[in-house]
Amino acid sequence: MKNQQPEIKGLIFVLRGHFNPIIFSPVWFASEKLIRKEEAEKAETQIVHSDVVSFNLDWMRLQVTRDMFFVETIKEPYEEVLRDLILGTFKLLRHTPLKLMGISRSEHYRIDSIEKWHEIGHALAPKPIWNDILENPGLNSMSITEAKRRDGLKGYIRVQVEPSKRVHPGIFALVNDHFEVSQPENTHGGDEIINILETQWESSLMRSNQIIIQLMEKLNGFGTK
Questions:
Q1: Which of the ends of the chain has fewer CB neighbours closer than 10 A, N or C?
Q2: What is the pLDDT of residue 90?
Q3: Reported pTM
Q4: Distance between CA atoms of 98 and 177, rounded to whole angstroms?
Q5: Please, what is the Cα angle at 105 between 102 and 110, to 5 degrees?
């Protein structure tokens, strides 16, 4: 972790609202020129059903249920492409009610040694309080929330830290920049969430990146170097 560069870096968008999953097929995205025809033809489709649609492209993973729209990429050059896909989709479907949106930065960091990995876990979750309760307690996952947004928008920022399941020994860190519409009971379309995405995109990424950088700098200072 000396250079503090993530081995895996991802971007996740989650929108909550009311969706008709069956329309979100690779063919539909291609027909609306949101992805290329060649991409649609090569899509790895898990399921296309009235209640859930799930497929993967080379650069994107997508799943839609009746109340959730989820997309993820772990290819950094495609992050703006992913944002544009969402904007294009819900400008076409602007009457789709969107209530919540999470923009999440996820990163996996390799740790230099098992000893250092354990030291970081002890720093995040001191064990003395648990030692008389559990045998050999270990950190599974923790989250810290900034409950009041500094930008005045409705929502919160939540940081999640846990052992990486993809890099060992490693740490997984995720920052969820969570936005909510101002009056959910009076929201009948997606304009407010789409406007938030357009206006807050750059600041959201900068904020999430900075949070993880600061966190990893602090964690790198614990224990052996």
A1: C
A2: 98
A3: 0.92
A4: 16
A5: 150
Asked if residue 50 belongs to a domain, the reply is no
Q: Which residues constitute the domain of residue 179?
A: 8-19+67-220
Query: pLDDT tens digits for 99-143?
Result: 999 999 999 999 999 999 999 999 999 989 998 999 989 899 999
**What is the domain count for the chain?**
1
Whether the Cβ atoms of residue 141 and residue 125 lie closer than 8 Å to each other: no
Categorize the per-residue pLDDT at 225 as very low, low, confident or very high, splitting at 50, 70 and 90. very low
For residue 128, say if its preceding peptide bond is cis, omega within 30 degrees of 0: no
Q: Is the residue at 62 inside a domain?
A: no
Q: Give pLDDT, residue 1.
A: 55
Burial state string for 28-52 with b = 16 or more CB within 10 A and e = fewer than 16: bbbeeebbeeebbeebeeeebeeeb
For residue 24, which amino acid is it? Answer: F
CB 26 within 8 A of CB 40: yes
The CA-based angle 108-114-117, given to 5 degrees, is 50
Give the start-end residues of each E strand in the chain: 8-17, 44-48, 52-56, 61-65, 68-73, 98-110, 142-146, 155-163, 170-180
